[in-house]
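Project standup — Tuesday

K.O.: blocked on the structure for the chain from last sprint. Re-posting the sequence here as requested.
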Amino acid sequence: MSTPTPEAPGPRDAPGPPQRVDRGDHVVAFSAEVAASAEELFALVADPHRHHELDGSGTVQSRAFGPHRLQTGDRFSVAMRVFGVPYRLPLRVLTAAPPTTQRAGVLEWAQPTGHRWRWEMAPVPADPSRTVVTESYDARNQLRVVRAALRLSKVHSRNGHGIEASLSRLQNRFSPDS
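H.V.: unblocked you, prediction finished:
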């Protein structure tokens, strides 16, 4: 009787689909592993002129106004289109902290109605060429009446689908098979 020989290590398993992250009431968040460094991903997210490349909802257009590398306190705006209606959305950066070996990169901005979009990019400890990216829509600071209206119109649910699609786009963009 022969002993089975262990198989040679193969290519790393492809990352799984985005997974929902529980951040409490009024927050929709998903995480996914992406085959790119946290620095590379932070540079992409920190450039509002490239947000349309990330957007999985189909609402962010290719025109943006503001710096190409967001810093805490910056103001910028992006052209949007929802239900066929174009508009320009002004935003303010609350946090722009590039990743380091000690901490994840964080980029967060606020919309005029009080809700926030946040991107976190944490290097995978065993492989810094890979990053766990978490994107969230946080409506906790939103005006109650706006939050209630948006929930009734299923914006939270649509944002969840858009976040999942954005993270899937990032995974596909940096897939070794691409």
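K.O.: great, moving the ticket to review. The first helix runs from residue 38 to 45. Residues 97 and 129 are 19 Å apart (CA to CA).
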